[in-house]
Amino acid sequence: MKIALCAAALLVTQAAIAEEVVQKPAAEEPKQICTREKPVGSNRPIRVCRDAEAVEIVGERSREAFEVVLRNRFNPPELRP
């Protein structure tokens, strides 16, 4: 009897999950890209999730900052902008 009740509950749960998946279209929410990042001054990594557009913006800013570091590293102070 208990096994039958558990099996019935499991089937109802699976059906509810299947309905929820069908009702929720994938195009509604943008895909999230999650990374582990360490904040400045901390050794503890945290999980940061961003959409594709935000990841592109962060990557662009990182490249720009890296180029500035390289430019300043190899040029004497009087030639720096």
UniProtKB/TrEMBL annotation:
Instruction: Name its species.
Output: Luteimonas deserti
Provide the leader sequence positions. 1-18
- Reading the lineage from the top rank, the first entry is Bacteria
Q: Lineage of this protein's species?
A: Bacteria, Pseudomonadati, Pseudomonadota, Gammaproteobacteria, Lysobacterales
**Protein known as:** Uncharacterized protein
- What are the protein's UniProt keywords? Signal
